[in-house]
Structures are given as structure tokens and as C-alpha cells.
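Friendly challenge for the regulars: who can give me the C-alpha cells for this chain first? No prize, just bragging rights.
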Amino acid sequence: MTVSLDGFIAGPDGDFSWSAPDEELHRFHNQQVSELGAHLLGRRLYETMVYWETAEQQHSLEDFAIEFARIWKAMPKLVFSHTLDSVEGNARLATGDAGEEVAKLKEQPGKDLAVGGAGLASTLIALGLVDEYRLFVSPVVVGGGTPYFPAGVDRIDLELVETRTFGSRVVYLRYARA
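First reply, four minutes later:
Bragging rights claimed.
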């Protein structure tokens, strides 16, 4: 997830327009997402990302955005929500407890899973089900909003695995649990 320098994924008013990727960063996201086995989403992120189910039909999109739309459409997605009755595309609605469902998925062989959405990520972090943290730190201070890490999380020791700085001044940090 993209995070402000002061640790928020969205500002006080829910704005996250400062996190929109440029072409270089978008292509990096494309590569990373193409390597995933599935993406786990909370309701709000799912509702934001459903745009990509039909985005490739827009002729005004850049080639890297069309590429992302194709990757996203093909990827299996598991949506965690207590309010949705159905989901679109290559997604299914989770029916069980988030911790139990994710623990079962992690036991299966295959590619990495990604999690998106502050609420779902908070739940999985608290349950110790997150093995890596991949942050895209934007050079902006938003002063409050939705935090990347939930309040009250116990200490998590991490090991820096990878870094990369993009032309947009965004810094990618990849940490594994130590």
C-alpha cells in the first residue's frame, strides 16, 4: 500500500489522490501484481478497484494502465465484507472468519497473497498472518487520517529485504518478519 511519510494511507478527509502512481511506479505495480496468486480485499478497496474490471475498454488509457486492468481482471480476488451480497469478475465473497480463511489459504501451495484495505490488513496484522510489508512511501505529510498500521499492534520485528527509489520520489520498502 502507498503511505504518506507520516504513516497514513488516506488523509483526514479520506483523500488519497496524492498516492496516484506515475508510469514508472505503475509498471512496477503491474510486475508485482502479476506475480501474485490472489488478492485479498476489504469492501471499500474492492469497490474502488472494481473500476479495473472494465477499464481496458476505455480507449484513452495509457498502455501500462490497460496492462494493469488485464492483470487485475485475471487475478483471483477474495473480498471480505459484511455488507456486500455479491462481487464481480474473478472475485468471490468470503463467507467465513477472515483469520481462518487466510490461514487456510496460506497453507496451500502457490504464489504469494496480497492484502489491501486498512480494516482487513489490521485484522490480519493483529492475527500475525502478514509475513511481509511492502510500503510505497510518498513524499507527503497529510497530518492524520487512516493509519497504515493499526493502533495497539504488538511489536513486530522486521528485516529490510528490498528498497527502490522512483523518479517520483516515492520510496519502496519491503520488509519481512524477522
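The helical segments are 23-34, 43-49, 63-74, 98-107, 118-126. The longest helix spans residues 23-34. Your move, everyone else.
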